Amino acid sequence: MMAGFGRGTRRHPRSRGRTWSRSGPDRATLGIIGVICAVAGFFVLGIILGPVAMVCGRLAMGRQWVRSGPVPALVALVLGAIDTLLAIIWLAGAATPGNGPL
Q1: How far apart are CA 41 and CA 49, in angstroms?
Q2: Measured between alpha carbons, how far is 56 from 31 in angstroms, rounded to an integer?
Q3: What are phi and psi of 41, to 5 degrees?
Q4: Non-local CB neighbours of 37 within 8 Å, separated by 6+ positions
Q5: For residue 37, which of 1, 87, 2, 3 has the smallest C-alpha distance?
Q6: From the centroid of its chain, how far is CA 85?
């Protein structure tokens, strides 16, 4: 009745239903996309591109928070946070565009 119990798990440790789809972007691509969004967010649409960069950076990091992890992911996360913070300050009116010291 249970002749197949325990077999097959050694050859194929993951069943087909539990594996991630391979059609999406990998972690390195997400890190690069996050960096591009963060840099572009400093110039246009920072309130949108900043959080997008943060999400891409977080997804690219996976479960790793160590320094030896993916560098573009960490850069995207930090620049996205700075970009979002600057956009919120700009929207609040504390720093109006064109009225800076320069």
Answers
A1: 5
A2: 6
A3: -70, -20
A4: 49, 50, 52, 53, 56, 76, 80
A5: 87
A6: 17
Per-residue pLDDT of the chain (102 residues; tens, 9 = 90+): 556 565 555 555 555 554 555 566 788 888 999 999 999 999 998 899 999 999 999 988 887 666 666 788 889 999 999 999 998 988 887 655 565 555
Residue in the structure block whose two tokens are 């850069």: 75
Cβ atoms of 53 and 87 within 8 Å: the answer is: no
Q: Read off the pTM.
A: 0.65
User: Residue 25: which residues within 8 A CB-CB, separation 6 or more?
Assistant: 33
Give the residue carrying structure tokens 């002749």: 3
CA angle 16, 21, 24 (to 5 degrees): 175
Name the DSSP letter for residue 17: G
**Cα separation of 21 and 62, whole Å?**
16
Burial of 52 (0-12, 13-18, 19+ CB in 10 A): buried
